[in-house]
What we know:
By secondary structure, the chain is an alpha+beta fold. The chain has helices at about 15-30, 40-50, 70-80, 130-135, 155-170, 175-185, 195, 200-205, 210-225, 230-245, 250-255, 260-275, and strands at about 5, 35, 60-65, 85-90, 95, 100-105, 115-120, 125-130, 140-145, 150-155.
Amino acid sequence: MTNLFIDISEKIDKDHIEVIAAIKEAADSMNISFFIIGASARDYIFEHFYGIRCLRKTNDIDIGISVSTWDRFEKLKKILLNEKEFSKTKLKQRLRYRHNLIDIVPFGDIAAPDYRISWPPENEIIMTTLGFEEAYQNSLTVRLGKNLEVRIPLIPGLTALKLISWEDNYPDRKRDAEDIMFIMNNYENAGNFDRLYGQEKELLEDETFDNTLASIRLLGKDMSMILKKDAKEKIRNILAEETSDVSQYSLVRNMMHSKDDFENTLLKLGKLITGFNGES
């Protein structure tokens, strides 16, 4: 789908480099796999590698770590908190590093069978980790600086995580919906132009050479290819519910950048569905 390695060294904020290096050192010491998700991953791919200006800047860093127990999660946090610059916050998954907030989300065997994680000891449900495993398995290596390489999701995996996160936390995740729209509008120029005029030319012809609509269908197709049954069914249901005749169109409205583009936004979301479902 895209390069499996990108180099954006010397383009990243110094604090980001320092905090990610500290996380990597701690995770490596415990043999914990992790990847960067959320807005930072979006920025690394689109703005820093492809030169596509993002909607907004972020100083926050979201990390997904693959662990089997809460003890391993807490041990990793303890290692980081022993570092001078890290401090606790009121939220159990969140640390502070200078002016950066770091959310560390555990996934994998630690999650319940329904992919949800519940923070002990209160066991309050925090979030779903559905799709995390597929996003991690379909990730790429990014070089952030000298001797610092980490994993980030491929764009289809990142889109899937944002869509599931939006639905899981509605109405508090409007930015996820805005990011989905941003990704849809820019997928063509994020390493997919040659695909549209090469191996996916039939798809382009179906859309009468509308590159944007064709690339959105390609994004849906790429998402479907990397997801397993449960995540695929979840996303299919979200998209169907948010575009049905009885829908309140909450996703469409959250994606919109102005009051005038409802029909165009709905059209684009429909093309994502077409690609995801393998329709013509």
